[in-house]
Design goal:
The protein has 396 residues and is of the alpha/beta class. The protein has helices at 4-18, 72-82, 139-144, 159-178, 201-213, 227-239, 272-282, 309-312, 315-336, 370-383; strands at 21-27, 41-49, 52-61, 64-71, 89-94, 98-103, 109-114, 190-195, 218-224, 245-249, 262-266, 287-291, 339-345, 356-362. It is globular. It binds S-adenosylmethionine.
Length: 396
């Protein structure tokens, strides 16, 4: 059988040999660590360099990051030496199964298998950024926002956000084409708002796409209720002389905004996603794209109608259904408001479990789609939902 530690290494080695390796993450046992070790973390990727497989290991300690590429055997020795101390936890992602190793005080270890977060092999290209929208030309603002280190490498704690934003921008490109805005004669002076923009990664990303990649005259506005974040966004925009990019402090519901062509939101908390949708409709946005965050509104109201009651006794099923219902209703409210919608997973769950996206393009007069209105009312009645944050649209 072997110890959990040996089994973990056997799984790691096997995944590297069979090509099923996705990534390895090492983190400290936070409560137990002192000083700089408390914040240290490492991530290993498999990359091809000059035709050879190498383990590219990025270690972050406080504000310092260092990436080293090791031949695979050497990389494995490095992992062996560092597991236990300073890293008490290891998460191995493979396309077949994920493995979590926890090393306890005194060296005892526990190994747990999980459903794989990612079932496809990631790119083995050494510098993934060369293939993405966020390539070297985005280096200035990605460094200013702390996504990249001084050498231009994505910081280990930022890789998921980097992939989310990059994928969001790829999808935005397709949607912009669907809107007809990529036709040379149709290039608008586009006005776009990013609602609940937080640290502004997506806001800068959208500005980069429209201003630098498409080279359009664009106005991109980030809306954020936390003043310090909006101020930091404005400072970073000034630092790179980003024309047409600005940040507004305020609530999504009422921040001063001009009429919009497009509205985006990534993980705006709970009903802030609904506030964003309502604001987008009210400001005339032709394109609305939201990736919702947590869902807290429907579940406490939801009844357990027959024949679903026996399934909904299980908390996880009730939770998933509440999320599914909330997002399904959001797409119906958008249809009622004259939009054609799509609901899909925009990125692998390995990068975020909050991976649902709702895209909407307006194609008809608002508040005429009676079939959507009826579907909303029937669903609400069936599940006993008394209040949904988009209900005010029904009075329109
Ligand atoms: C989970 S963060 C996501 C930030 C960013 N969009 C991203 O994906 O990195 C949600 C952000 O929305 C902001 N927010 C939540 N509700 C808001 C509201 N009603 N008005 C403005 N900002 C809001 C929060 O302050 C927070 O910064």
């Amino acid at each position: 059988m072997g110890t959990p530690f040996e089994l973990f290494f056997a799984r790691l080695q096997e995944s590297l040999e069979r090509g099923t390796f996705v990534r390895l993450r090492l983190t400290p046992r936070r409560a137990k660590m002192e000083g700089a070790d408390r914040d240290s973390r490492a991530e290993a990727r498999l990359v091809q360099l000059k035709g050879q497989n190498q383990l590219s290991v990025t270690v972050q300690q406080g504000s310092q990051t260092e990436t080293r590429n090791h031949p695979v055997a050497e990389g494995l020795s490095w992992i062996r030496e560092n597991l236990g101390h300073p890293f008490g936890n290891a998460w191995l992602g493979t396309t077949a199964k994920d493995w979590q190793l926890t090393v306890q005080d005194g060296g005892a270890a526990r190994l747990v298998g999980h459903k794989p977060a990612q079932t496809t092999v990631p790119s083995r290209v050494h510098d993934e950024r060369r293939e993405t929208i966020l390539d070297d030309t985005a280096g200035d603002w990605m460094k200013a926002l702390g996504i990249l280190n001084a050498e231009g490498r994505v910081l280990p704690g930022k890789t998921d956000k980097f992939h989310q934003v990059n994928r969001y921008l790829e999808i935005l490109t397709h949607l912009v084409r669907e809107c007809g805005w990529l036709e040379p004669a149709a290039v608008p002076k586009l006005t776009l708002a990013d609602m609940g923009c937080g640290k502004a990664y997506l806001t800068f990303g959208a500005w980069h796409l429209f201003r630098r990649v498409f080279q359009w005259p664009v106005r991109v506005m980030g809306v954020e209720q936390r003043e310090a974040l909006a101020a930091a966004g404005n400072r970073a925009a000034r630092a790179i002389a980003a024309d047409g990019l600005e940040f507004v402090t305020g609530a999504i519901q009422e921040a001063p905004l001009p009429p919009l062509d497009a509205l985006i939101a990534l993980h705006a908390c709970n009903t802030a996603t609904d506030d964003a949708i309502r604001r987008g409709i009210a400001l005339g946005a032709r394109l609305i794209v939201v990736a919702p965050c947590c869902h807290q509104e429907a579940r406490p109201q939801m009844q357990r109608p027959e024949p679903l009651a026996p399934l909904l006794r299980h908390g996880i099923m009730e939770e998933r259904l509440a999320e599914w219902l909330t997002d399904g209703l959001r797409s119906l409210y958008l249809e009622w408001a004259g939009y054609r919608t799509k609901v899909f997973e925009f990125i692998d769950t390995g990068h975020t479990p909050k991976n649902l996206m709702i895209s909407a393009i307006r194609y008809r007069e608002p508040f005429q789609a009676e079939e959507a209105r009826e579907a909303i009312l029937k669903l609400k009645q069936f599940f006993g939902i008394v209040h949904h944050a988009l209900d005010p649209l029904l009075g329109s």
